[in-house]
Amino acid sequence: MQQDGLEAALAATQEQVEVAQQAAALAARELKKARAAVGVGQVRDLRRALSAAADAARALAKEAEQAAASYAFDDGEHLASGAYARELLAAAGESGLAMVEDDDRLLCYPSLVRVLPGDAALEIDRRRERRLRPTVVVAALASAQARPPKGRPKALLESLLGAYELLAVGSDRPDPVLRLDALWQALTLLPGAARDYSKPEFARDLYLLDQSGHATSKSGRGLRFHASSGTRGAGVLTTVARTGQQQRYWGVSFSPR
What we know:
Blueprint: H1 6-40, H2 43-70, H3 75-80, H4 83-95, E1 100-102, E2 105-108, E3 111-116, E4 121-124, E5 127-129, H5 134-146, H6 153-168, E6 178-179, H7 180-187, H8 193-196, H9 199-212, E7 221-226, E8 237-240, E9 246-249, E10 251-256
Antiparallel strand pairs: 1-2, 2-3, 3-4, 4-5, 6-10, 7-10, 8-9
Helix pairs in contact: 1-2, 4-5, 6-7, 6-9
């Protein structure tokens, strides 16, 4: 595992690129002088400017080579080994942004982040993001957190009720408590639906619904979340709150109000 992270490697290369840019700017200035001189026939100034431009070009080539050599970081190994995810978690912590790791995802309210080593990219809320510099990613996640959530709690409430009524058929109890992972399975029965709407996304949306205050369906059925010993075992859906605390959801019931 590499000692230094991607942030440090990029910062070092950035310094080299900025030096090369200064050399490029000097070469451009001398060429501009040469163009002005050749346009009016100021031959003495032309020779001086062309000579200075050639010197600047040689300096630029040297600085560009040094900039290219400065980025020898194995970003593929860094991404694949999990070191990048740890670096991102550390960068979030340093900035005061709550982020936790959950299986193959990083949870940072309201965003779900997945590292895609093979593509040298991130997947943030189903969108590919190729900007990998940790400070840039953390700033983008903080900006997303500051905006109002895009969830549709009322629509989710109605969908939950539909799945609940489907699975509650034949129950010998009125308003039975049903596990949320079973409701998710009912909501994603169509081919590919489970891939298009993952459990982590469902858990995140449950939290947004929970926080929205929308608990009564159009038909007047009231939603109630239930926790039990199941929150320690199978069927638990986990997400993260704005504060960084893990939120666990296990079961729900609907009853008339």
